[in-house]
Write a structure and sequence with these properties.
- Helix 1 crosses helix 2, helix 4 (80-96) packs antiparallel against helix 8 (162-175) and helix 5 packs across helix 6 (121-130).
- This protein is an alpha+beta fold and 514 residues long.
- It contains 15 helices and 25 strands.
- An eight-stranded antiparallel β-sheet has the order 1-2-3-4-5-6-8-7. It has a five-stranded mixed β-sheet with strand order 22-21-24-23-25.
Length: 514
């Protein structure tokens, strides 16, 4: 076994030990074989060779982690002296031919970028004179500067031009910020297997998903090894305590997959997952991670950091990134709600190539290729239970009553998708056979028929013994809930019956005491 393969095998086993240390089930761990670990390590070495060759150039490369570590010492707040000098260098050709008035305008315009704390309207006025419509209050400053360059005729968009190099440095410096966390850019198969934290962790859930590796009957978690075996995917993540190696494997706080083929200039950024779930509120983090990744790749490939980014879904280039053959993971970049992005670097704007993402995963027992779950059909029966809904094997089943009134056993995934608990009889029924009552309880149709009645006023179901008998505005006997009783009915002092307020002229009545 060569040195790198031995290292990755050790990484994988150590990560799996960390991953299952706090989980409540060993069903997956007990099925993981040496054969699986060794093949995953070998396949990953071969598949990620181009990315590894590129990443090893980084000053932040960690050979043991097989990851680039970007931290607070790698970036800084903008150096505005450098911003000023770069702007002067870029605009120097325009200054050579300018008269005194125009020179003053150019210098004032430069101050807008190099003196951000000055609130001098003359800076903006100078920009407006040099390049009308270049300035807008919320417009990115690098774009404002580019519009000035265009207006003054100093822009040179040819590949490798001095303008391109200087402008890329200017834009980078203007947008640079110091980060107070460690960001890991990893091609380590151990980090792919543990990309989502274990479900039912005894310390509390955090960042779990359908790629959580400790659920044996989940359809998509073969995608963990499928991503690890393709040639373009790397995982970007943060951890709760990056100085504790265990948390890199079981307490990730954010993670995101990026896909890039070296020297191709096309970058795919998938959904950002965090401890809160969903994508709401993650745009700022996602943009920061993308900026750091773009800057790192451009630096490693020795080209200007000039990218055009847009949403993947509905992109104007009509770019479609397909799944690789046999990939069974969750292709989250294809969903509009998940805010995936594509970025094209300017030096490859017209010659980038489309790539495939993911490939077959591996059975954790026999190491054969598969496209669903963690065990192939030959390995997944022993010690497992059979789900009568999806007809697959799983580690545990639940007793439910199906739509035909038959009592069957189903897996957790089918339970969550198709069934709901009746809170009155404590039985699981198909979701379409569960109704919501007036007090927001979920109750099966059988219980509704036997133990519940409709309130005549609000048409909501309530337990029969919780309703009051009353006379409605038409003189009919009806049942009403407490809320409708208080709002629409009054008590007759003579007969002690409840009457609708519109019917109260039939007898002397007074409102029900509070």
């Amino acid at each position: 076994m060569d040195k790198l393969k031995e290292q990755l095998c050790n990484n994988i086993w150590a990560a799996l030990d960390d991953y299952f240390r706090h989980a409540d089930s060993d069903d997956v761990y007990e099925n993981i074989s040496e054969q699986f670990v060794e093949r995953l390590a070998s396949d990953s070495i071969k598949a990620k060779s181009s990315l590894r060759q590129l990443f090893r150039k980084s000053q932040g490369w960690n050979e043991n982690l097989q990851a680039i570590v970007i931290n607070g010492t790698k970036t800084h707040n903008p150096d505005y002296t450098l911003v000023h000098d770069l702007a002067n260098s870029i605009l120097r050709p325009a200054k050579w031919d300018a008269d005194c008035d125009k020179l003053t305008l150019i210098d004032r315009a430069i101050c807008f970028f190099s003196r951000p704390n000055d609130k001098d309207d003359s800076y903006i006025n100078a920009i407006n004179e040099l390049a009308p419509h270049a300035y807008a209050p919320r417009k990115k400053r690098s774009r404002i500067f580019k519009a000035i360059c265009d207006s003054l005729g100093v822009s040179d968009l040819s590949a490798g031009s001095e303008f391109q190099h200087l402008f890329a440095q200017f834009a980078d410096e203007l947008s640079t910020k110091k980060i107070d966390f460690k960001l890991f850019l990893s091609i380590n198969p151990a980090h792919f297997l543990t990309m989502s934290n274990p479900k039912r962790d005894d310390r509390g859930s955090t960042l779990t998903s359908c790629h959580s590796f400790n659920v044996i009957d989940c359809e998509y978690n073969c995608g963990c090894s499928g991503y690890a075996r393709d040639d373009v995917t790397f995982i970007v993540f943060t951890a709760s305590n990056p100085d504790n190696p265990e948390t890199l494997n079981n307490r990730k706080t954010t993670r995101q997959l990026f896909m890039y083929k070296p020297q191709n200039g096309l970058l795919l950024q998938s959904r950002l997952y965090n401890t809160h779930g969903g994508t709401c509120g993650t745009q700022a983090e996602s943009k920061l991670y993308r900026d750091l990744v773009q800057r790192e790749i451009s630096e490693l490939e020795g080209v200007p950091n000039l990218w055009k980014t847009e949403k993947y879904c509905g992109n104007k280039h009509n770019i479609h990134i397909p799944c690789g053959n046999g990939f069974g993971g969750y292709a989250d970049w294809t969903h509009p709600d998940f805010d995936a992005k594509i970025s094209i670097r300017q030096d490859h704007e017209h010659d980038f190539q489309i790539f495939n993402v993911g490939t077959y995963g591996l059975c954790i027992s026999c190491a054969d290729e598969l496209s669903s779950k963690l065990l192939c059909s030959d390995c997944d029966h022993d010690g497992c239970e059979f789900c009568q809904e999806c007809e697959n094997y799983c580690s545990e089943t639940w007793d439910v009553i199906n739509r035909h009134g038959e009592r069957i056993h189903v897996c957790e995934s089918c339970l969550d998708e198709y069934y709901r608990l009746c809170e009155h009889c404590d039985e699981y029924f198909p979701r379409e056979q569960i109704s919501t009552t007036g007090d927001a309880s979920h109750v099966c149709h059988n219980c509704l028929e036997n133990d519940y009645l409709l309130c005549s006023e609000c048409d909501e179901y309530f337990l029969a013994n919780e309703l009051s008998l009353a006379v409605d505005e038409n003189g009919n006997n009806v049942y009403i809930c407490d809320s409708c009783r208080d709002n629409f009915y009054i008590l007759c002092n003579e007969c002690e019956k409840l009457f609708h307020k519109d019917f109260c002229h039939h007898c002397k009545a007074e409102e029900v005491p509070a």
